[in-house]
């Protein structure tokens, strides 16, 4: 020890006596001080001895000794022991060549630098040197440590280092820089502005490695600078799948907040629909109609986010799954929510802690949307081995899910729980039963009886809880239950839990008129035991006495006096107070004469029944998945989720420079059209550009997952670079476009053509149709301007639909062949037209109901898919006549039902498949009130037909309905009811019925097909039977299998068809290439499941010889 | 003091501030801070909650203290208590803590207090790499193993002799590539890939033996030791069975969506490729039935127990490792039983009766029968205890899932491939 430098000795002494900081400061003022050494050492000899040899080891020349010493020091730190006195000895080794030694020194430095600032500065130059090291790992780790040393004096150095690292070639170093931003910010918030600059730069980074970290930094430093996100929004969405899992969580949470400020609510859709469907139709005012029926159209960017986060529901990281779930909860249209259910339920298999958090979130969700979790009810059944808080949460959810249909199952399950050995849980179950009983009036009596049975349970907590719950229940309907009150009075002697006793007494008092004989007797007993009761029981005794005094003073006057006297001298001042108060109130005397007149009204006032509701009722004020939600109180740093804006902010900030439709909602269309026209003309270019970019990069992303990763990254980088450039130049000025190379220009033109219908579609939604010069031939049919008359568009409609040769005009409700481009058409005329054309199907429902559907379909049918709005829906080429049996007359007791797919866009909802239902009565008496029951069991959204009041024997009626199959072939189950009976029926859609036909040019088809390559493509080779080879038969077979449109083809042996899925509007492209005798069927669609199912059906259809 | 100033300002958003490891006895044996030091007295709030909860499982995972939030997990008899200062998704922290525990397990073979204490330096190095400024940095075990080599007996001996280190000298290649889970330049002389399809049946059967609830939770564990950058495709005979799946990040979601095949560049070594869920909607085969009769008498402080287990839907395979566990009511003092097969053991402290049967012989069904003696004077238990069943069936995936084939692209050699199936009981409970 004597061989050591003076400096270090003095540190050591001081350090062991006082805190490390003081040592450092003192030392700088008295360098080389030897004072007071001995005393300190002798006091702390044991500890210091150990540290002494550590110091020696650190000073030695042997690497191994140094390493050993550092290892021991780390051990000390881990145990929470103070090792700060070794700082000088350790810091010398910061430049060691041995990487492990160096790392351990770093660990030490980061831990103690704050306390030994001056000495820590000695190490800085080492890090500065290392920042320039050719090895990226060394650069990164130097930056990590440098930024972790919390010494204010080096802030400028850190700032410089961060700025440099942010432009480093290595993404790993840039990632470290992003982390360092947060550290610097917490050290010196004054650097905020500079740091924001760096964040802005890093946000543009295209590496998946950086994305998560920089968003993290953004969230910490400047979460309010939402404007920085705009330009990077799409990139982040597209990168998301490839970002590491932790980054995904952070990005998803940030994007949730972002989306809530930028997009309009998708939720009003449902509400608007129900309200407006009928109203709008009868409404003759043009303007109002335009405003009201203008359905919600999701911003494509909004859709992009939902689409790109969806696959992450399959992540193994529970935090990611939860993050996506909360994103869907807060952002997705309500009907799309169901996709998160399965994943959340899956998380319940995970660790106990995960279960806890997930169940809490499910509990909140299940209050608002029972339907989401109802099919998974059994997953919430409690096991005896679950932890108590897990059990209670499951119970909570089961209670939330209870409804008339499943209550018996749930109550049966609860019966098991009530018997649980875990008494706290049993008590919670009783409360749950109470809640079910109040919420579902059908079972109130059953529950009450059950609870009364529990009163004879041996366990005290169970009995007590039952009493409390019964009390609450009785309050809702007291008159009928004097038996129960009597029963409870009988049990009273055996119940010892104060709360239960108090509850019974309260019941006695409150309903003393129902039990006039028993109540005074109970009071008599209580008078005897008053002094031994708990306080809350005493209060209720006083209450009971007062109430009885008022209703039955003859019998109870003396008892009351006695009890009031006892209360007067009670030890508890609450009871003394209450007694005094009650006495003044009920016993008339000179002073309080006025009040006692009202005593009865005061004490016996009818009391509202307590509302038994979920503890999670108002949890949804917090964003799901957050700490605040779990704690049910705002945690520090919680960022409020803003409400949807009423009007979406300018979308163009994300480079989409198109006028937001919502903004002009309700404005008189024609007046505005002029200005809008010019605007749109200008914007449309860049919008397409942008769209293109988005498409490009997303398809790039998808290909990256199929092909070699490393290659695809660089590719996509290049690609988006390119498009970025072009789009920015676009938005600056359209003239700059001409400067760009010819090649580019032609490319752009192509895009232009391709995208035109899209922009047009939007314009029409605005009520402003615009002529657009360059467009492809196939779209000529859609070149109608707003001023064009409806009759003209009607004829267009005809000419358009003649592509389907097999069309059976007389059976098909023509008008439903929707035309997207005639938004402005006057409804009246169209509807007349429709009526003329309408097929004479046997329909007995009032005309208006036929009319309205068709009409509305004209108005709305075509706004179906915002995502693939480049395409226009067309009329079905072929409508199969075949109908399927829904209900046989034998099972239906005379009522039979058949359904067929009309292949028309559904009038009831954009995402519904429309169906025609024919109901016949084959019995010999009239059937009344035929309707579909309110509840649909499988969770599909079903639009029911209006109830048929009366169906005469042998008569039949045809009605239409809509079902949202959500692009799956899962059957829709529902109840078909008559006045007397209920029949469970189900509709199983063939995959081909989940589609709607669209038209597009051949060029567009090829283009779209190009975007849907790779895993979105499924194909098969089949051998055609000779009679199938003709174009006629191929067409016929294909369109009979699926509701898709025929695309004109210039090649002889290739047939093309296009459609989109009803629910999500995803493109489905089918091509059949004949190569005698083989044929290759290719299907391109994002909905790969649908794709493969379709393929199978086509295969069978085309190989079977008979149609 | 400047230090104080800093700590006062220091309330900016940081995900995980500190980590404390606490054993079951309540000893705090390791602490790690990623920013300024938080006094370990913050754990007093945890201890309070721990005491209140009685059972370690009942400790609430999220605890609020006046200035911090404590998020904890309980694993392998260790509490991992993390200190949080600001809003953060709780699952984020919970998932991370579990990942830490898994990493320890991966490195040291088990995650226990003694192994952590023995390897405290590696633990510290790992924690340093896994979290930077409270934000997860490298959690992928393959990358970590390149940065910090796991201890082996041989290496630690060599290290002490030569003074060489267990910290990687080279840059982890994975961190920088787009395939962060795989390191470059993997080489094996024997190239092999093994997949274990493990299915667990979660079920609740009621008194009469009818299924209240049953579902299958499956995982496919993989052990892939292949050189270079193999690109594998695993396909199933009946992929439609799989209702809900989650994947290791290496799996290409889109391929699964479109073709129902699992396409991936595997990590090196052991990993869980996917997990899946076959829900209650499908019919789940229940391999055994249990006939039981447990009754407690009103008088005489005694009870009777009679349990018989027999095969139900075993698809012709043998049920092995059959164990019946009963959590007896508190009043049961002892059990005097007779087992026709296997051994039974009743622990009067934990009140757990374990009957280890072993292989199920369909010809001679195992039976456990006898009397239970209760605490005299105590009322008879309200509820009969439920039975937890454990079992194992080799060479069978109870859902019927079958791997069709495994194809490898990107590399020339011929790998050895193997698939194993096993079915186990998960949370399999029989109510009585």
From TrEMBL, chain A:
Claim: Membrane is one of the keywords in the record: yes
Region (Disordered) residue spans: 670-823
Bilayer topology annotation: Peripheral membrane protein
Gene Ontology biological process terms, A to Z: intracellular protein transport; vesicle-mediated transport
Acidic residues: bias regions: 685-697, 710-721
Cited InterPro entries: AP3_beta (IPR026740), AP3B1/2_C (IPR056314), AP3B_C (IPR029390), AP_beta (IPR026739), ARM-like (IPR011989), ARM-type_fold (IPR016024), B-adaptin_app_sub_C (IPR015151), Clathrin/coatomer_adapt-like_N (IPR002553)
Compositional bias annotation for Basic residues: 743-753
Domain AP-3 complex subunit beta C-terminal: 825-970
Cellular component per GO, a single term: clathrin-coated vesicle membrane
Main subcellular location: membrane
Domain Beta-adaptin appendage C-terminal subdomain: 994-1103
Subcellular location: Cytoplasmic vesicle, Clathrin-coated vesicle membrane; Golgi apparatus
UniProt feature, compositional bias: Low complexity: 698-709, 779-794
Keywords: Cytoplasmic vesicle, Golgi apparatus, Membrane, Phosphoprotein, Protein transport, Transport
Functional summary from the UniProt entry: Subunit of non-clathrin- and clathrin-associated adaptor protein complex 3 (AP-3) that plays a role in protein sorting in the late-Golgi/trans-Golgi network (TGN) and/or endosomes. The AP complexes mediate both the recruitment of clathrin to membranes and the recognition of sorting signals within the cytosolic tails of transmembrane cargo molecules. AP-3 appears to be involved in the sorting of a subset of transmembrane proteins targeted to lysosomes and lysosome-related organelles.
Homology family: Belongs to the adaptor complexes large subunit family.
Protein name: AP-3 complex subunit beta
From TrEMBL, chain B:
Family annotation (Gene3D superfamilies): 3.30.450.60, Mu homology domain, subdomain B
PROSITE patterns xref list: CLAT_ADAPTOR_M_1 (PS00990), MHD (PS51072)
One record GO biological process: vesicle-mediated transport
SUPFAM superfamilies referenced in this protein's UniProt entry, alphabetically: Second domain of Mu2 adaptin subunit (ap50) of ap2 adaptor, SNARE-like
A Pfam family it matches: Adap_comp_sub
Superkingdom field: Eukaryota
Gene Ontology CC terms, in alphabetical order: clathrin adaptor complex; cytoplasmic vesicle membrane; Golgi apparatus
Keywords for this protein: Cytoplasmic vesicle, Golgi apparatus, Membrane, Protein transport, Transport
InterPro entries xrefs: Adaptor_comp_med_subunit, AP2_Mu_C_sf, AP_mu_sigma_su, Clathrin_mu, Clathrin_mu_CS, Longin-like_dom_sf, MHD
Location of the protein in the cell: Golgi apparatus; Cytoplasmic vesicle membrane
Residues in MHD domain copies: 190-431
Membrane topology: Peripheral membrane protein
Entry function: Part of the AP-3 complex, an adaptor-related complex which is not clathrin-associated. The complex is associated with the Golgi region as well as more peripheral structures. It facilitates the budding of vesicles from the Golgi membrane and may be directly involved in trafficking to lysosomes.
Assigned protein family: Belongs to the adaptor complexes medium subunit family.
Name of this chain's protein: AP-3 complex subunit mu-1
Organism annotation: Cyprinus carpio carpio
Lineage of origin: Eukaryota, Metazoa, Chordata, Craniata, Vertebrata
